[in-house]
Amino acid sequence: MTHDLNPDPGSAQIRLSPDAALVLFELLSRWSSDEGASTPDEACFESPAEIGVLHGLLAELETQLSAPFQADYPLLLKEARDRLRDTWSGRTLRD
User: Fold this and answer.
1) Where on the tree of life does the source sit, at the highest rank (predicted)?
2) pLDDT by residue (tens digit) across 7-26?
């Protein structure tokens, strides 16, 4: 998700819609907070590298998104979730 002028030939870029970026930011923020939210069990990860990648993704989203720092963030998040909900309603990661 970085915008390097000379990207590594082996690198990958991920493009997200504004709604998807906001929902992903909230999920990763919730997982990384100390506020008692449920998080994936340790058994979900095969390597600490996977957790590091998720933290890196969260850090990158923090540099690109302004909505999480706006006063109406809860409303913006709800609207983004509502717009995406119908696309994924009733599905799991394994569908």
Assistant:
1) Bacteria
2) 678 888 899 999 999 999 99
